[in-house]
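Q: Here's a chain of 437 amino acids. Please give me its 3D structure as tokens.
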Amino acid sequence: MSRQLTHDPRNHVLDNNDNFSADNRWLAVDVREAQGGIAGNAVIGRVAVATGEFEVLYAEAGAGPWGPGVGAANFCPADDRVAFIRGLNAASAERPYELWRRTGAMVRVGDPRLHLLDARDVTAPFTPGALRGGTHRHEWSADGRWIGFTYNDAILAELEQRTGRRANLRTIGVAAELGRPVRVPPGAENQDGEMFAAVVVRVTPEPRPGSDEISRAFEDAWVGRDGYRRPDGSWQTRARAFLGVVRLPGGGELTEVFVVDIPDRIDLPGEAGPLEGTAGTMPAPPRGTTQRRLTFTADRKFPGVAREPRHWVRSSPDGEHISFLARDDAGIVQAHLVSPRGGPVTPVTRETTPIESCVRWSPDGSSLLYVSGGAVTVCDARPASARFGASRALTAPSDPPPTCPVWSHDGRTIAFNRLVPSGRAAFQQIFLVDAPG
């Protein structure tokens, strides 16, 4: 039986993030309005799991319809830091919040001082360790020392606008604590950052048909709490799984699952070019990054990864499996697994109606969490279990369906959003349900 946690006449948006605090007592949220989005939102907060009490963690003094704006709050699993998206200080009606004009920010609980995570330098010749665009959906590593994110490049966005040539391609980046900030030259849209950032996935506007080249990388996640085991038995400490768009031999595009192995040091340039990029090229991945395609679904009845619902790939805690959504032979969106080492795709769920949300793993790796048939649902995800694929609804169906389900770190509680009418309006409220077992 689910229970409503928040009752405020405003939204409490979980946004498919890692919202539970390390001690499982709080949920990180933003309170954006549907029509204003992140650009117009000024508040990052947290909600007490026991009482529904709302506490402001950060308030943006100058937020307007064009920014800076804040949103998509994400608790660090190791301590009391909260990361989120923030627009630029220089946001204006002429240069508003955009995919390539935003950054990663952080506050500590009890300390509203703003910390900017990734440095930004849009003044040539640019700065290694700084980016030239916007970062999104900032996911902490398990130890709290790294951040993963998606990235859009402002320099190439302006090149695309000037020339009409496709250049502004979404890709994947990471940032690491190196013990020193990244300093950049002064500039209206430049900023220093506390972490060293780098793009780690190569994208190209025109992938070769039939190759593993991709034109877009997105919806990414860390692989395992501490990485995964390589085919030779050695351990890969850090990797990001993600979706990539390939070009088919006969034309057309297809979305597949990829992984990129990330070296211990991301401050060393590789052969593809400078870390900071050039006026006409994307920042290049560090030395030692290895990008691989994991799924090859062109021969399936319904090929490719499902694009609806929008979802992020997710890794089991031990790094053995990556979950994603794809249609089965009946055309129903189901959860599937693939190893970060590659190999066959394993169907998991057997729902009679399409999965309607992101898929999340239980902290012990035994179950998947998602929404199906308008209900919060869990499914056995142990391939060796006789109950593999067996599912159970934890809530009664609702319309509209729940969104953004997330599991607490101790595995006991599941939180999710549900749209609740209030007078002539409706607001995203937080609901809780006890996890099975």
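Q: Can you summarize the key feature?
A: The radius of gyration is 21 Å.
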